[in-house]
Write the structure tokens for this entry.
Amino acid sequence: MGMDYGALGLRVGLEIHRQLDTAHKLFCECPTRLSGRGAEIEFARGFRPTQSELGEVDPAALYEFRKGRMALYEADRGTSCLVEMDEEPPHSLNREAVEIGLAVALMLGSRPVDEIHVMRKVVIDGSNTTGFQRTCAIALGGSLKVRGKEIPIEQICLEEDAARKVGDRDGGPIFAIDRLGIPLIEISTAPVIESPEEAREVAERIGSILRATGRVKRGIGTIRQDLNVSISGGGLVEVKGVQELGLLDRVVEFEAMRMAGLMRIRDELRGRGLGPDRLSDAPIDVSRAFAATASRVVRGALDRGGAVMALRLRGFSGLLGRELAPGFRFGTELAHRAMAIAGVGGLFHTDELPGYGISAEEVEAVRGLAGAGEMDAVVIVADERDRAERALLAVLERAKEAFDGPPSETRAANPDGTTRYMRPRPGSARMYPETDVPPFPISEDLLDRVRASLPPPPEEQIRALREAYGLNEKLARQLLDSEYLGLFKEAVAAGAQPTLAAALLTETLKALERKGVPIGSIPDSRILELLRAIAEGATAKESAEALLEAASRDPGKGIGQLISELGLGMIPEGELRRRIGEILDRDPELLRAPFGKVMGAIMRELRGRADAGLVARIIREKIGG
């Protein structure tokens, strides 16, 4: 049974981020491509929060600072310079990026600002070498229609992309700075979206407008969708980093489920006559209850000189095991907070014990040491004593928040559509002016030039595709809605058959994606090689799916090598005639079967190594029909 999102009061706002395909980065002349080389330069940075002009400190920045971590950066001279390393002031704002952003703004009916002023947004998680991200509003307002509903646009911004996290080491993360500074466009909608399906459709519509410019990048890491989600009575949650459009509606659905579940827990706690003031316990050491434990996690912590710490949560019995979303319980919620703040690997709680090597006797001993009654829950962490204690204090804070329903916070999207705690929501103190970049005036002459070069509406583009390439309306529409229109035109210019190229770039790739094939790892050059090989008769179009799947597993191999390794080269006509004859002689029933059945049986045996038209002609010669 589906959720009643209207009764829940679900409201969603989208922030769509997309890399722009410009010649150079937003504030320097480095190219907007990722490095194919190893690190030539390494340097480290530590960060600390600063006060705003009003003396305030951003809570998200303070949270990251308290982790006490140092970031290590890797760079190469082909994709980064002293600007990315924060050893040189930023250069002028990229005019090409501004013009692309203004084109998008005009297509959405947004009002360009008179003058662009660059701001600094505090970011001290290490993803920016400066400790802030440069961002600027270029247009305000506007709207788009989805199923007849008006979706207001709040603002359109240009900003620099962050560094890529490539690993971790003791003491902090490792980032590659090749991506740092690539221009991003950010489009923010008002929080008027009322269902997961509507959220996906709005994102698709914005995506189609961005693609229509022909000036956005595609591929893994070039697009990110952030969500602002709330329900009636709950706080505002920002979900970061939904990279796949196909995951967006599931994230909204699961986040609504999580929030609704937290509201039910809130109501049940209040119904039990409890309040946050009843949660006054401090973490206690219960290591002695595990002297002879069979739990590998607990034994390992004790053997390393650590401790087993426990925290009583009064009145929480049965709530920590409550499922909020598929595979996600309230205990998971507490664990994520502890992991994010204290860096522990996880926790145990009495709603899931005995289990994980912890016996019923050990559970009873812990409950006794903690003074837990029948309606109380106990949370257990095994780690270094100080770390375990910090983890349980984070659990205590989160348990107190449960009395008010879903808290306002920033969360990250998981690959399964659930979310996890990242940090507190940022406040207004994180933004301040960038003094190294002069204002960029937007003149009427500039706007007139942008208006003159706007792409035609989607329906006109579909009509043009049909007329120029002989595509049917379905294929033309699918191609326009895909990420591959530019690649299609390049392939046809190189000799590919238009309908085949369009079908491969839309339907075949989509079928592979549904099978779980990582199509984003297939280089454009491999797709072009494949279409060229089919056009030249080196392999059959029926082999395309198998060859693309192989290319996704080993993108370094050329299509010619894969054709040879998989035995998917075309069978010479003489050999083909002989093999079709053998198949018909071996199975006389085929001679009396409908033509389609004969064709299907023979093509299966030939494993895509023959042109279907030639096979059909040979079959007709042999059996008629």
In short: Residues 245-271 form the longest helix (27 residues). The chain has 20 helices and 24 strands.
